[in-house]
Amino acid sequence: MPTPYEKLYENLLPKFRSYEIPFMTTDEVKEELHDYLLPAIVRFHVCENNLKDRDDILEQFNMELLEEEIEILSNFMLLEYIDANCIRTPSLLKVNLSSSDFHAFSPANMLTKLLEMREVYRKENETLLSRYAWKKHSKKNTFEILKRNVRRKQEKI
To answer: What percent of the chain has pLDDT over 70?
Structure first.
C-alpha cells in the first residue's frame, strides 16, 4: 500500500510553528513542505525501503513506510526547515525592528539558541536513526542465524 506524502506532512506540522501556514492554502502548504522532502530522503541513507521509489505526481511513496520511517523522515524535514528558515537566512528576523529593539536584541544570541535547538533535534533524530539501523541489522542477523541452524539440522539428517 502506498504512503502518501501527506502522512509525512501531518507528522511534521505539529513539530514547528510557522506564522505563514494559517494563511496558506492546503496546496501551498504541501508545496512548501515538499521542498524539504528530497533533502530529508537523501539524509535517510539507511532506510530499508527504497525512498527513490516514489511518485511526485501522485505525491506518494510506492510502498508502505513504517511509522519509524515516517518519524525519521519528518524529523529530517524539520531540520531542513530550521536550516532554511532560521539559520541560513541573511537576517535572523523576518519582522521589522526599530532601532531601540536592536539594543535589547542580540542576533548573535539568537543564532546561538537556534543552533542549539537544531542540534537537539539533530541528536534526537540520529538516535532514532541508529535504533532503526540497529533493528534492521539485528533482524538480518537473527534471520541468518536461523537459516544456518536449519541448514545444520538438514545436514545431520
So the answer is: 73
Look up residue 8 and give its amino acid: L
CB 79 within 8 A of CB 118: yes
Range picked from 1-5, 43-47, 96-100 for highest mean pLDDT: 1-5
Which residues are bridge partners to 3 per DSSP? Answer: 61
**Could you write out the DSSP letters of every residue in 67-116?**
HHHHHHHHHHHHHHHHIIIIISSSSS-SS---HHHHHH--HHHHHHHHHH
Side chain identity, residue 18: S
> Using CA atoms, how far apart are residues 33 and 27, in angstroms rounded to an integer?
10
CB 74 within 8 A of CB 8: yes
Task: Give pLDDT tens digits for 79-107.
Answer: 998 888 777 766 554 444 455 545 555 66
CA distance 9 to 30: 8
Asked whether 42 and 75 are in contact (CB, 8 A), the reply is no
Q: Dihedral, CA atoms, 111, 102, 22, 27, nearest 10 degrees?
A: -60
